[in-house]
């Protein structure tokens, strides 16, 4: 019986062991990061939501009391403040999400037509997204400050009264939405540009042959071709708007009154500030917000990706 020479190759069992270990080495760093910074805090936060805890003493189990105070106990101040903050968040979402989808979409379509200076405009619209939120808010406070802002200075040169951009409604909402749009449209624009690049040119040529104008091409070629990217952008933009915090915190302080105290800001104030922080109540609010966002995301994704 002839003996087959295997040369310098390792035995089969060693090769199988290495082949199984290699994928684990690649996903290992991310898996460790996920377990430490995402999975563990999420599970621990869910556990805290059933307790009363101020970070300094021991946790005391209160069952569903924290959830009752924000969901169905109408005599609780936390019920009123929670839903007031949710209302403020919802107003911001309604005002910000449509322009954060439509404006980047039309900018992407314009740039995709390859006009002169297309790379300059691509960089111009994307550049603000590289800034931190603190930098963005400081820039817009400098522009919109009622007494010393650049915008009101030029309004004053026209003989008009100064506009309270950061201290009165509805101007505070306009200010927060405008600074958010300026800061974030670049990311959505890049996503739409990537999607537009995947639409075959022959579909537009066929539409032209059939006599379709630009508007008809947009609805019958461009939008169907962007179905996947559009669904992703809608869901992620909605989630980002629901999680808004830094803009109202830094620009308006949640004012005037509590008008712009959004939900994440209220959760932060409840759980971490004041002489008696309520970590359990803040965790319960976070869990409720997470369930709301998960439900909205699933509904949006289902509606955006369903087959006609």
UniProtKB/TrEMBL annotation:
InterPro entries xrefs: ABC_transporter_permease (IPR051393), MetI-like (IPR000515), MetI-like_sf (IPR035906)
Similarity comment text for this entry: Belongs to the binding-protein-dependent transport system permease family.
Membrane topology per record: Multi-pass membrane protein
Keywords on record: Cell membrane, Membrane, Sugar transport, Transmembrane, Transmembrane helix, Transport
UniProt GO BP: transmembrane transport
Native organism taxonomy: Bacteria, Bacillati, Bacillota, Bacilli, Bacillales
Protein name per UniProt: Multiple sugar transport system permease protein
Claim: S-adenosyl-L-methionine is one of the keywords in the record: no
Record localization: Cell membrane
GO cellular component, one term: plasma membrane
Gene3D superfamilies: MetI-like (1.10.3720.10)
Domain named ABC transmembrane type-1: residues: 86-300
Membrane-spanning residues: 24-50, 81-111, 123-143, 171-197, 218-242, 279-299
């Amino acid at each position: 019986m002839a003996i087959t020479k295997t040369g310098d190759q390792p035995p089969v069992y060693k090769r199988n062991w290495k082949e199984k270990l290699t994928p684990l080495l690649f996903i290992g760093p991310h898996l460790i990061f996920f377990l430490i910074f995402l999975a563990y805090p999420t599970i621990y936060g869910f556990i805290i939501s059933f307790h009363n805890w101020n970070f300094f003493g021991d946790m005391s189990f209160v069952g569903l009391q924290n959830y009752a105070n924000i969901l169905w106990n109408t005599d609780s101040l936390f019920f009123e403040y929670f839903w007031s903050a949710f209302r403020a968040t919802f107003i911001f979402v309604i005002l910000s999400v449509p322009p954060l989808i439509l404006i980047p979409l039309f900018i992407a379509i314009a740039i995709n037509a390859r006009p002169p200076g297309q790379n300059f405009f691509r960089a111009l619209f994307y550049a603000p997204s590289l800034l931190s939120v603190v930098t963005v808010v400081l820039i817009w406070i400098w522009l919109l400050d009622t007494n010393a802002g650049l915008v009101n200075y030029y309004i004053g040169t026209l003989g008009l009264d100064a506009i309270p951009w950061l201290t009165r409604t509805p101007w505070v909402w306009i200010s927060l939405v405008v600074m958010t749009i300026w800061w974030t449209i670049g990311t959505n624009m890049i996503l739409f540009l990537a999607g537009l690049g995947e639409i075959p040119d022959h579909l537009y040529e066929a539409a032209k042959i059939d006599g379709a104008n630009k508007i008809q091409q947009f609805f019958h070629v461009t939008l169907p071709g962007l179905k996947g990217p559009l669904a992703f952008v809608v869901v992620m933009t909605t989630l980002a708007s629901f999680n808004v915090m830094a803009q109202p915190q830094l620009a308006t302080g949640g004012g005037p009154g509590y008008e712009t105290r959004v939900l994440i800001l209220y959760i932060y104030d409840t759980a971490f500030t004041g002489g008696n922080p309520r970590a359990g109540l803040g965790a319960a609010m976070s869990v409720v917000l997470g369930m709301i966002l998960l439900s909205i995301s699933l509904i949006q994704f289902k509606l955006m990706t369903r087959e006609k």
